[in-house]
Amino acid sequence: MDGREQLGLLRGTGRCAPFSETLAGADKGPIRAEKIDILQLNLGTRCNLACGHCHVQAGPRGDKAMSREVLARCLDLACDGEVSVVDITGGAPELNPHLEWFLGEAGALGKRLIVRSNLVILLEEGYERFIEIYAKNRVEVVSSLPDWRAARADRQRGAGSFDRIIRAIRLLNERGYGRESSGLVLDLVHNPAGAYLPGPQKALEREYRKRLLDDHGVVFNGLYSITNLPIGRFLEYLVRSDNLVDYMADLCGAFNPAAVDRVMCRTTLSVGWDGSLYDCDFNQALGLPVRRGMPGNVADFDPGRLREREIVIDNHCYGCVAGSGSSCQGATVS
Amino acid sequence: MGGYYDTEDLADFQNIAEFANEQGEAFFRYYQAALGEGALTEREKSLIALAVAAVEKCPYCIDAYTTKCLSLGISNDEMMEAIHTGAAMAAGVILAHSTQMRKIVKKKEM
What we know:
Chain A is an alpha/beta fold.
């Protein structure tokens, strides 16, 4: 399904008012950007896994990859004083041939550097070296681990992936990642392995910490609890399992006006593999670029205009404002 | 009007204060206080709630608390164990009432 088809499905689920109406009813619309604090780069759609919740539908056949030219331009943008975080995602970022060079350059900028890795890639031949590259550049590693039990995690990420992730965490721990005193940060992401919303982040973090240490002897810094947005492969699963209507009703029913004030798109600018600009990685996956009239590509980046842009919204946005809110940094409302 | 139990009616739970607002609001305050984290964790209370839901055969509550348990990361085994606890309790309650039957039998038989 392309983005247009996905949005058509989300608009037609009946029990949900259009997101724009719900926002207006809560006196929370339109949503405007406030600053560009986080520059999030999607390096492409190639991945060694094909996870069931992947909103960009990445996989081994993904053929989009950010070029060195676009990455170089992103380095220029990252030099902007307002940007404090460079957040790298994919696909599997490690499969982009320019990642090592980029991290070397970006590491010198003194910004917070995040790489969203599936960790499984770090066990594949030729990619183990990234553990050292990450450590050298003080990269914060973030990885999705849907559950602390293999069966549930594997249902979402593929058979055998849980054991490989644990092995990779062990290697990262040996290098100092996830250990309080090292300054090397390893954060995990909990995505529900099915058609339900995540529970309280703090409680889940406690459970993950205990179970992963007791059962596997591994440690991490923090847990982000992220709601699965009903797009991409997760949307296909919802349709296939006849869960879409109920899931959308759960999202709308959990609409939290306080979470609207904390949505990540207010402080994030997302860059696609070809340099196109988006309000967030989800809009990017749906092919919804920044609002018409705004600079649409890194080539004509204009922070003055972009930092106050109106955010492009649709019904998938219910996912970021349900319950405790959700963002790439986890829950947004305590 | 459709059947007596409709999945969509679960969403109507928030409206049960209708027609008796004061009592309804009082119930909701009590419900939140009873189900919220206290000396018992939200996890423990959700499993108790699921067991009660199954014993009371309430499809709405079973739906709501199964989903809640999933959200809290509770395993399928733990949920089933909670329901077995409820089932064993219900069976025990019934069997405990056999005392009445046995007493009457012993009184009335020659």
